[in-house]
């Protein structure tokens, strides 16, 4: 069995956490139409039910850092899978809005933990030359999960929303089972003093024992003791924090999850019936899959920074077109389909750039002693911004109109281009230890 095949299997199984992430966050877009009817929810009630999973994700991503440092990346992913199963069961049998909201909060704990630890696990175990493509598998799984949730929502639109939630247990069980057969991160094992164990894993996942030994030597040279939170905020690490957290925040405040969570609601507001509104959301999911496939190639071929700088201007342009459609009155003639086309284009350019790079950059730029905590900060920033956006999107549309909302998001997309140009260096093809050296030598933003 080749090392390349083994590395691929490890990345695919671990990325199953992304599938759960995508399905459980995306299924609410279809289920919300039924839940709103069944429980007579107000706009604020809809936003609270939608946002509960995000609040849980914020707690989960911060709480998983000490767990992954103490018990390992692999065991933390297994714990997250078990929490997925518990949360899914609770959401499925909920009979009241408080119990449904709480169950979605529990699901959020697992979503947050997965977003924090899966990219770190993959980044620490795969070769540098394939790190971009394989870490992006996590985001690929996220968008596949979102698309599956859209399709499931469409076919179950006349059935119970409970079944929509229940189907999320299937990938959770597969993830829990699959992770029992995978190795620990060799970098985590080295940090814990298990050098023989790290050597064994590296020899398993590298093409030769010589390459495994060279990498182990590099890890040992850069190894430090496990560091606390104060280390993350020291001046020498500030460029990494700014770059990684900035991209995490921009991934959300550029509007992608606002579109995903409320796409059927937005489409319903421009003249589509319930079934058509859900069906019109499916092309968005398909577009995101295609964009992520392209992005998984481009992060290694073009580079992480180049990919974002090339695509984000078109993301802003797509939102501007969408805003104009709403300004002109989207219920006339073919205009609703122009709205669909603009949203699909936006999903391609935004999800194919920021959403592809966010977990990869976060997993790359922090040194080993603070990598888990640094990634928690990235994931926490991502989920905090997502929570705010999901809580205010419908209210924002009510206050300034859909056109004003999309103009606002378009402006943020343009601001993201300026931020990335100034603060985000290229990490393509560099080992994790080389990136750490650039930080220590104060040339991180010069790379």
From TrEMBL:
It holds the Pfam family Sugar_tr. Residues 10-428 form the Major facilitator superfamily (MFS) profile domain. InterPro entries: MFS_dom, MFS_sugar_transport-like, MFS_trans_sf, Myo-inositol_Transporter, Sugar/inositol_transpt, Sugar_transporter_CS. Keywords: Membrane, Transmembrane, Transmembrane helix, Transport. Gene3D superfamilies: MFS general substrate transporter like domains. Its main location: membrane. Signal peptide: none annotated. The chain crosses the membrane at residues 5-23, 43-65, 77-97, 103-122, 134-155, 161-182, 240-263, 275-299, 311-331, 337-362, 383-400, 406-424. Coiled coil: none annotated. It is found in: Membrane. It is a multi-pass membrane protein. Belongs to the major facilitator superfamily. Sugar transporter (TC 2.A.1.1) family. This is Sugar porter family MFS transporter. The lineage of its organism: Bacteria, Pseudomonadati, Pseudomonadota, Alphaproteobacteria, Acetobacterales.
